[in-house]
Amino acid sequence: MFWTSKASRDRGRRFLFFCPGCRRRPRERIQVNQINVEVNVADDSLRVLLVDDEESYLQTAAKVLRRCGFDVELCTTGQDAVDLLRQRMCQVVVLDLKMPGMNGQEVLGKIRDHHPAVQVIILTGHASADDAAACLTRGAFDFLVKPVDMSHLMERVRTAYEIWKLSPAR
Predict the structure, then answer these.
(1) How much is the average pLDDT of 36-50?
(2) Mind giving me the DSSP string for 5-37?
(3) Hey, which of 10, 68, 144, 170 would disulfide with 117, CB 3.0 to 4.6 Å?
(4) What's the pLDDT tens digit per position in 97-108?
(5) Which pLDDT tens digit goes with each residue over 107-123?
């Protein structure tokens, strides 16, 4: 589940909650104009790799990212993500930390070994200070806790992309 809010002078603040997999599928009501993020991908093709074993979250986040102009690749396992990065270049990876098989920290290590310029945003529903410190020490760009506000995720992806463009290793 993720949420966003909207302020109004006469009505106060309105909170909108989106729950992937809910019967009425409120995620379908997500509109790009709710997300105030400027994305300029004219010079380079911004490709984002989403890696999460939770299929409903993966599809919802991909839908929002695509509506904002990002080219999005999806993987449900860490090994699939490593394999995909061997075939296709992605500038930003949004990576779930806790997954069966190869976990997020292992995937992060492999990305750092083979693609040092790729910016990795770690996303988890089970955060600990130790996990955050370990991931940031290994070179993650950011560490976010679910549920994450989609506008915040968009901003972090955009900033990670700007960092990638400045990297001499790209």
Answers:
(1) 64
(2) EEEETTTEEEEEEE-TT-TT-GGGG--GGGS--
(3) 170
(4) 999 999 999 999
(5) 999 999 999 999 999 99
Exposure letters 28-60 (e unless 16+ CB within 10 A, then b)? eebeeeebebeeeeeeeebbbbbbbebeebbbb
8 A C-beta contact, residue 47 and residue 71: yes
Q: What is the pTM of this model?
A: 0.75
Residue whose tokens read 């979250």: 57
Domain boundaries, the chain: 46-166
CATH topology of domain 46-166: Rossmann fold (3.40.50)
* Helix axis angle, 78-87 to 104-114, nearest 10°: 20
